């Protein structure tokens, strides 16, 4: 059995795509996943499975959500150990205790690539935000007070590629890795 993290995109945000975490957990258990845990109300699920095919796991979860809740929700599935390895390779400027900086990890839902994301969103605004690609993620930090001036803030939610991204804070990501 291997531990996995499933990150659901766009649930329980602004009153849309409401999915109670207790019901989501039951849905995962009905798929015969074990040791299912949810974290926060934003679609973070940690589970164990003997299946090691990420695409198959993803499809099972997306189908269950569609059938049980009636939503087409993009899902990003990653082995928990791989997520841990990604965090070990974070740039030195990402995820520190500076309260003026907001640190996020962007997960690119296949088939999206960094090239696709960068092509659509563009350069980060110098002095306001930083990005660094690592595997299927992008480390992204910005000045909290000036988020509205950044290039990436509005575009991660409003461009065509935004449907292929799901974002978690540094703190949420660290918590998920340790569950």
Task: Determine the mean pLDDT.
Answer: 95
Count the strands? 8
Tertiary shape: globular
Structural class: alpha+beta
Percentage of residues in strands: 25-35%
How is the largest sheet built, in terms of strand order? 2-3-1-4
Uncertain spans: none
Number of helices: 6
What characterizes the major β-sheet?
4 strands, antiparallel
Report how far apart the termini are. 15 Å
- Give the SSE order as H and E letters: EHEEHEHEHEEHEH
Radius of gyration: 16 Å
Q: Helical proportion? A: 25-40%
Question: How would you characterize this protein structure?
Answer:
The chain is an alpha+beta fold. The protein has six helices and eight strands; from the N terminus they run βαββαβαβαββαβα. The chain has helices spanning 21-30, 54-69, 80-88, 114-121, 152-158, 170-177; strands at residues 2-8, 34-39, 44-49, 75-79, 101-108, 129-134, 137-143, 165-169. The strands form two sheets. It has a four-stranded antiparallel β-sheet with strand order 2-3-1-4, sandwiched between helices. It has a four-stranded antiparallel β-sheet with strand order 6-7-5-8. A hairpin with a 2-residue loop joins β6 and β7 (137-143). The longest helix has 16 residues, at 54-69. It is globular, with a radius of gyration of 16 Å.
